[in-house]
Amino acid sequence: MDTGGSAVRKAVFFKGLLFLIPALFLAYFYFYPLLRMAGLGFSGIWAGDPGLARFFGSRDFVSVLAFTFWQALLSTLLTLVFALPGAWVWARFRFPGRGIFALVVSLPFVLPAVVVAAAFLSLLGPSGILADLSSFLFGRPLYLEDSLILVLLAHGFFNYAVVFRIVGGFWARIPESVWEAARILGAGSFRSFLHVALPLLAPALLSASLLVFLFCFSSFGIILMLGGPAMSTLETEIYRRAMHLFQLPVATLLACVQLILNFAVIFVQGRLEKRFQTALAFSGKPENSLSHGKKRLPVLLALVSGTIMALPLSAMVLASLRVGDSWSLAAYTQLFRESGDGLFLISPAAAMGHSLIFALASMSVALLTGLCAAAFLSRSDLRGKNLMETFFMLPLATSAVPLGLGFILALHWPIDLRGTPLLIVMAHSLVGFPFVMRVLLPAFRSVPKNLMEAAMTLGASPARTWRLVLFPLVLPAVGAAAIFAFTISLGEFGASLFAVRPELATLPVSIYRYLSHPGALNYPKAMAMGVWLMVMTAGSFWLLSRLMGLMKTRSTQDEK
Amino acid sequence: MKCLLEVENIEKWHGLLKTLDGISLCLGEGEILTLLGPSGGGKTTLLRILAGLEAPDRGRVCLDGRDLAPVEPHRRGVGLVFQDAALFPHLNVEANVAFGLRMAGMKKRERQHRVFEMLELVGLSGLEKRRVDGLSGGERQRVALARSLAPSPKLLLLDEPLGALDRNLRERLARDLRTILKKQQLTAVFVTHDQEEAFSLGDRIAVLLDGRLERMDTPEALSAYPGSPAVARFLGEPNVFTLKDLPAAFRGLFGDSSEETAVLIRPEGIVLRPLIPVDGEAGPFPVLASGEKDAAFLSAHVKERRFFGAFFRVELDFGGGFVLTARLPVSMVPPDEGARVGVALKEGMFFALNDVQKDR
C-alpha cells in the first residue's frame, strides 16, 4: 500500500515491530542461551578440562549415546506393535464404542510426561496396584522398579496416539475399492495386507515411527522417573552432570550433541514427509464407509487395547484415593497442607497456584510473540520468508533440558534472571511459541487478501481492517493457540526442573519431588496432583477440540 | 467531455515484466467503461491501481480533478467489487452491506435504511439477517454490489464480478447490473474477458492487450472497425491477413495499399455459389444472383464443415496455404466437404485495418 509517504512510514514501522518483537524474544531467550552454552562447552575443550577428557574419552559417552538410541528404537518398535492393531481396528471397522476407544487411546499423548510416569508407577511400581494385588493373591509382590521395561511401556503408552492417529487416519482414508480390487484379483486377507496395505501405508508408518523415535530420543521425565539413577540417556545425563555432579563443561557438550542429533532427526523427518506428500495423497479424502461385519476379533482387540490403555490412568486415580491401607480422600483434603520436608516439598496447592500463574503468564507471552510472528510471516512479501519461518520454528526442535541448561548458564546478563519467576515464564513461552505459530500461521494465511482489500475500499483504515475483519476471522485460532500454550506450560517438566527455585515449584516438578521423597502421604498426594494435572490438561484439550471444530464450521454472528 | 476519472500514461512493472504500458484514458461522469482483454492483459492491475491497492511506477490517476497518488485506498471513495465477492464471512448480509457506512460514521438508523434501500435495489430484500456462506453465487455478487454501492462511491470498479457464475445467471445479472448502475448514475469501470458482457454492459470499451490500451471506443464502433489486427484477432475474427498473403484476385479489392497492410474479411461476408462447368472455357465461373453485386470471386474447395447450432462454419481452401473461414446462415444448405465452390465477398465486409487504428 505504497501510497503517500507517512502511510508508508507507518506501515514499515508496524511491520518492523511485528518482526522485532518475536525476533528479539528468540534472540535473547533462545539463540543467546544456546550459543552461550555451546561456547562454554567448547572453551572447556580449549582449556583442556580434565573432566571432559575423562568422560568423552571413556566408554561412558559411547554407552550413553548407544543406550539413548537403543531405548528409542525399542520404544518405537514396541509402540508400533502395540498401536498398529488398534489403528487397524479403528480404521477398518465400525463397532459400538469406537469413538470412546479413539478417545481413550489418544488421551495419554496430551498428558504431561510426569503424569504418565506417575500413572505407571501407580500401576506397576513398588507400591503400585499390581504389587498390592499380587501380594494379596500369591503372597509375593510383583513390581517393576528402575527398569527399562517400565520406560518402554510408558513410551509405548504415551506414543500410542501418534501411530494411531497418523497411520489409522491414513488407513481409514484408503478407498474401499482398493481392497475390493485386491480381493477380486485373488488376494486373501493376509496377502492383501502384505502386498496392498503395507506398501500403501509405508509412508505413514515411516513418518509416525520417526516422530515416535524423536519423542523417545529426547524423552526426559519418563526416563528420569521410571528408569532410576543408573539409567542414563543424553537428556538425563545432561541433567545429572549439571545439577548433581556440577560438571558443567560435560553437560554443555552433551547438550550440544543432543541438539545436533535432535535437529538431524527432525530434518530427516521433514524431508521424508515432503517426499511422501504425493504418496499420502489419500489424506485429503474423507473416511470411507466402514464394514459393519460382525467380526469378533476386531472388537475383542479394541476392547483389550482400550482396557490396557485405560489401566495406568485409572490406577493413578485409585492410588490417589488410597492412603495406607484404607480408602480415603485424605490426599485431596491435605493438598493445602505444607508437607514436613519444608524446602523441597511445598504444598500441592501452592504448586498448583504457581503452575496456573506461570501458565497464564507464559501463555500471554507466547501469544503476543506468536501473534506478531504469524502476522508478519503471513503478510510480508519479502524474500527468505521460508527461511525465516524455519528460524521461528527452531525451538520446536529443541528438547527442554538443553534449553533449561542454557537458561541458567546465560541469563544472568545483562540482568540476572536466574531464580526469578520470569525465567520459568520465558522458558515455557519459548516451548509454547512454535505451537502458537503453528496454529496461527495457517489461520492468518487462510484469510483471503481480498477481504482486507474489500474493507479498505469500503473506507476502513488499516487498523480498523485488522480489528473488524482480520481479527474476528482468526479469533478461534487465537483461542486454540492460547490453550496450546497454556497446556504446554502446565505440563512442562524438563526446563522447569532446571529453572525453578524449590519454593516456586510447579505441579510437575512437585509431583516428581513428592515421588522421590517416600512418605506415607507423599505418594497418594503425588498421585492426587497427577490426577489434577490430568484433569486440567484433558479439560483444556477438550476445549481445544471444540475450538478447532468451531474453526472448521465458523459460526456467523453479527458483530455490532 | 469533462473527465471524472483521468488516467495519464500509467506504467507498471512486475519484476522484469511490463504489465501496463502507457495507459491513458478519460471517463466522463455517469459513464460505464468496460476493460476488455485476455487474462494476463493487465486489466486487474489497472483496476487495482485505480483503487489504490497498487501504486503505478509512472503516470497519474486523477479523480474529480484531484491527484489520487497520496490518497490511501480507504480515503479514495472508490468502490471495488471482487470476482469472488469477498464478503466478510463473519458478518451477515446486513452487516456486510452496512460495513462501508459504518466506516463513514453513519448513524445506525440511517444505516439500516440505506441497507434496506440497497438490498431492494439489487433484488435481495428480506435477506438482511442471512449468513453469507449460505448464499448462492449470484446472491453473493448481488450482496457485494450492494455493499460497494452503499457508501455512494464516486467511482465503482468491478473486477470480473460475473466471471465465476454460470452462463444463464451471468447474462441475467449483466442486464440487471447495467440497469442498476444507470439508475444510480454511477461512473464505473468493469473488467471482463467476455466479449458479450463487454459489449452489452459498457458505454465504451477499452481493449487491453499485453499491457497496452489498443483501442477505446463505443461497442458499435469497435464492432464495426476493430482497429488493429491484434484487436480483431482478440475479438475472434478468424480472417485477419496481411495483404501479401491474399490470392491475387482478392488483393485488388483493397486498392493500392502496401503489401504489409493488415486486412480483415468478415466470415459472414463470404458468399458461396455453386460452380457450373462451361465447355470450352478455361475454368469454372460462379453464378451470381441477379441484383447482387459481388465484389470478387474465386474457386475453392470445402476443407471442413461444422454445424454450430445457429450457423455453419465452413473452411475454404484456396490452395497455396490460404484458408478462409466463412459463416453461413442455417437457412442455406452448405456444400459438402471436399466440394468445389465459387467464393465471393460482399461489399463492405472486408477492409484494411491499419489505417483505422490511427484515428483512435
TrEMBL record, chain A:
The keyword Cell membrane applies. Its main location: membrane. Pfam families: BPD_transp_1. Keywords: Cell inner membrane, Cell membrane, Membrane, Transmembrane, Transmembrane helix, Transport. It is found in: Cell inner membrane; Cell membrane. PROSITE patterns: ABC_TM1. Residues 65-269, 352-544 form the ABC transmembrane type-1 domain. One of its GO terms (biological process) is transmembrane transport. SUPFAM superfamilies: MetI-like. The keyword S-adenosyl-L-methionine does not apply. This is Thiamine transport system permease protein. It comes from Desulfobotulus alkaliphilus.
Automatic annotation (TrEMBL), chain B:
Signal peptide: none annotated. This is Thiamine transport system ATP-binding protein. GO terms for molecular function: ATP binding; ATP hydrolysis activity; transmembrane transporter activity. GO terms for biological process: quaternary ammonium group transport. It comes from Desulfobotulus alkaliphilus. Pfam families: ABC_tran, TOBE_2. PANTHER family: SPERMIDINE/PUTRESCINE IMPORT ATP-BINDING PROTEIN POTA, SPERMIDINE_PUTRESCINE IMPORT ATP-BINDING PROTEIN POTA. Residues 5-235 form the ABC transporter domain. Keywords: ATP-binding, Nucleotide-binding, Transport. GO terms for cellular component: ATP-binding cassette (ABC) transporter complex. It comes from the Bacteria.
